[in-house]
Amino acid sequence: MAMMLQRFDISPVDGSYELVIGETLTMKPVGLRIRAERRNLSTGMPRRRGPAACKEPILRRVPPSTDRRPLLILYGSNRGTSESFAKRIGSEAATRGYAPVVAPADGYACGVPVDIPFVLVTASYEGLPPNNARRFLAWAESLPAEYARGRPFAVFGCGNRHWVQTWQAVPKRLEAALAKAGAVPVVERGEADAGGDVLASFDAWSAGLWGALATALGGKLDGKN
Ligand SMILES: Cc1cc2nc3c(=O)[nH]c(=O)nc-3n(C[C@H](O)[C@H](O)[C@H](O)COP(=O)(O)O)c2cc1C
Which of 27, 30, 41, 63 could form a disulfide with 22 if both were Cys (CB 3.0 to 4.6 A apart)? Predict the structure, then answer.
């Protein structure tokens, strides 16, 4: 998987594909076909750069496919910290009765499915998004006001206070963009400082996430519908 992601820029064949989660022994997207475009290996960058070629912002609807409530956990990460936190949230979500999907944010750069709460975990680099969250940030900042009205979301940022001017720049921008579009943060944005105790910050934030999420989803203490 790591080699594939390093060598190819992966996108859905059908841009209007609606996520259907199939469950057998593992969870999988049903009927999802992908296009793999070879990256420029000399730079590691995708050949097509810049914001997503989305004609308009889309919040796709997901038909309920399981008795578990889907939870989308997106990350922006160059060095793996945010990605590992996203995966930890995914593991914890599964034990709490959710059907989690953990993915790089740019996998949803043309829209997050309607009806699914989402959690974002992202770093900042010189005030800019990590490589796999650039198009997602562009999408979020392109949303019209009230477009995502009432959508529950949560943001956790990995940063370093050493970057004084741009400390947590990307998590802040994402939070602001989504709030402007009417989405509702279920919990205060979390912050981890790579110069401090990152794990303790994450644990403290995620401890508050689950109750807040359950409250936002109707007061139930687990993820079941
Ligand atoms: C070159 C470089 C630039 C960075 N710029 C910022 C920044 O602008 N703001 C910030 O809060 N943290 C900044 N950081 C800290 C990273 O965001 C932090 O180490 C984060 O945990 C990395 O997450 P990742 O492993 O998921 O990529 C920077 C780190 C590096 C190495």
Answer: 30
